[in-house]
Amino acid sequence: xxxxxxxxxxxxxxxxxxxxxxxxxxxxxxxxxxxxxxxxxxxxxxxxxxxxxxxxxxxxxxxxxxxxxxxxxxxxxxxxxxxxxxxxxxxxxxxxxxxxxxxxxxxxxxxxxxxxxxxxxxxxxxxxxxxxxxxxxxxxxxxxxxxxxxxxxxxxxxxxxxxxxxxxxxxxxxxxxxxxxxxxxxxxxxxxxxxxxxxxxxxxxxxxxxxxxxxxxxxxxxxxxxxxxxxxxxxxxxxxxxxxxxxxxxxxxxxxxxxxxxxxxxxxxxxxxxxxxxxxxxxxxxxxxxxxxxxxxxxxxxxxxxxxxxxxxxxxxxxxxxxxxxxxxxxxxxxxxxxxxxxxxxxxxxxxxxxxxxxxxxxxxxxxxxxxxxxxxxxxxxxxxxxxxxxxxxxxxxxxxxxxxxxxxxxxxxxxxxxxxxxxxxxxxxxxxxxxxxxxxxxxxxxxxxxxxxxxxxxxxxxxxxxxxxxxxxxxxxxxxxxxxxxxxxxxxxxxxxxxxxxxxxxxxxxxxxxxxxxxxxxxxxxxxxxxxxxx
Length: 536
Known about the structure:
Elements: E1 22-23, H1 27-50, H2 59-70, E2 82-84, H3 85-96, H4 105-111, E3 115-119, H5 128-139, H6 147-162, H7 165-177, H8 180-188, H9 194-200, H10 206-224, H11 230-244, H12 253-263, H13 271-289, H14 291-300, H15 325-341, H16 354-371, H17 378-406, H18 421-432, H19 439-469, H20 480-487, H21 492-515, E4 523-524, H22 532-535
Antiparallel strand pairs: 1-4, 2-3
Helix pairs in contact: 1-6, 1-7, 1-8, 1-21, 2-5, 3-4, 6-10, 7-8, 7-10, 7-18, 8-19, 8-21, 10-11, 10-12, 11-12, 11-13, 12-13, 12-17, 16-18, 17-18, 19-21
């Protein structure tokens, strides 16, 4: 009997040019990626050390929630958790006593037992991230540590979780552009947002969410560029479900994933088969991560209950006042841009500057809008933009609802877009490669971006460190070193050594970008090339 003919997915036509052979990853490129990833990890560690304890957004609430779980407390209904008296006592000690008189966590719990009247809103989220934090606390014997030391342990754990974003950015951009140089710039682009480092190196449920949604974007891009294996699709579903299991900011990835799987393989797989694949992926994600959201719908009749509802009840506008579109747009969009690029601090009080924020926003958006949505990458770009677009729409709708019901423009934070960050990096990579018209122009553009992106991050680090420790003065001699020696969680020399490692790693990475070619090594057939029968 004659064998059935098979269709080679690697040879079949697809809707864009990015499928097909990719440059081989040689030893030098692997070493470079390892260097930039380690540098990103050191960078996050620096931020974990220079931002004072509880000066990251909502960090007190996140730490308190982790302590509740580590102590064996149940996870109550949204708005029903109260901050531990011990946490408030530890915060008070930091502001009133020298460091050598700060109590351990066990001493705080004994001296200030029970709960306070302060609401901890974090029970509006799944307990997943806090279960991980509780494991870290128990592993380091948190009862024997000072509160700031326990916080530092959690910060460094989150920094470790976020560090692989550098590899994921490289892999995503390389897959899309087939350019090792562009891929390396994609990793360096992460340094351009000081807010990312500030959030990623704090105690937050955003850290595991960013990692898992980064995996989601990378796997979605693999599908969009020809990897039609079932294991890639199922892996995408598992990653999506895990991300949704951590925080609701991952939910906008659901339509993005559905669209990506539906589009992937157009021209190779028939529409019905792509529909089935999309349904299977979403079903896997639902099986892994929908339990919390189903619970919310059954118990509270809302997908995402408001943990602040008890302390921010509905309120009417005062007589003579009414909702203002101008005011809403000014506060909402202004806050969004500022807290995306760089405005660390408990109250987002430390900014890299309105002028720099505006310039970064305008240039980044203009380049993407003008150059990313062109053939032959139009289909891929439209899928990629769907993730941040849904994030923006959901966040705006939430802010509008809060404004109309409470008179406050609430729920607007740039960090809520970080789950879609790799989509923005990928779109930027596609766009910036089109700005210059020649290979030499691409090389110079890549080198310029490799210099500018870390420069923005380093400037942000200087601004933030100076603000918190040196009287907002960016040069030495204003008591910063003495203040850090008295109140910092580690020796100042530890920060200096880590900062030097970051600088060395950045110099080596930028030099590699300047000296690399757009494509390196021989091209190889994708490891995911399979026949149609094997992909079933």
